[in-house]
Amino acid sequence: MPRLPPCLAVLTALVFLAASDASAQTLQEGPPPQHRLVYRNLLVARLNPLGLLEEARISYRYRLYRSESPALRDNFVSVGLAPALSPAFGRLGVVVELQPLSILQLWGMYELVGNFGTFRQQQSFPSARSDFSDTEQYARDELPPGDARRPYSNMGSQLTLGATLQLKFGPVVARSLFRLVRPDMPLREGDRVFYDIYYDVLAPNQGWYFVNDADVLYQTGRGLTIGLRWASSHAFYGPSHFSPGEPQDNPNTTHRLGPVVAYTFAERDGARFNSPTVLLMVNWWLVHRYRTGADSSAFFPYLALGFSFSGDLMPVPSPAER
């Protein structure tokens, strides 16, 4: 794994002490009600890699205890559904969340994943050292019908374990979303890994990999948030994910860094339609096997444009009633 520059090492320490998930849906005034039915929705388009995704989450939340302290009051245990759809795949997950403190959320999700065989998905490879560049994937998509290397459809499952951490100092927020993922997909005979377009990872089938998004943000108080995102991934390949006789070092760790800008049009506690937000992210690849010059220019950034909103589906009592 590449050695991180000192500035990134400092940022790592900071965001692991404090980070958050945008789906927290914290009420600003008083503790949350005992029972909540909440949802969030995200539509995002991206470039380098190319992608379009609509994902949602709807959950029932039960408050664990009552507290007026900002560090403690937003606590709950929840269970819900997490559907996601793109032109290349569909997912449906069951998610369980535990938030004992306002700054910490632990969660797990089990998903059924179906790849449609469109937009170059599913693509699988015999080794973690195989070429999975965009050029190779486009070339495979152009192969004649019947060629064993063409993309194909399949259906499998995936387990994700996550931790969301957050800390706020006045208008400055540090936050991180850490995910540990274990896919189980029925791959083509002889293949051991596959390209996961969702995370842009060459995933070890029936193995683990992690993805982390870390942000340091400044909230202006007028709906505008600006900051910096560092995203990273690393796969834990085992001997079964390499061809016999190959070196077993991991060439597929990734890091990218760049600015994030978001604007929230309105916020109202307990509203059915709340916090409509437009997000723009421009990140440059610092470490990537193909996106730092080998297959595409290092000056070509990761671009993402998204729109999100959330809300409460059950009436929320006033702060005094809560």
From TrEMBL:
<protein>
    <recommendedName>
        <fullName>Transporter</fullName>
    </recommendedName>
</protein>
<keyword id="KW-0732">Signal</keyword>
<feature type="signal peptide">
    <location>
        <begin position="1"/>
        <end position="24"/>
    </location>
</feature>
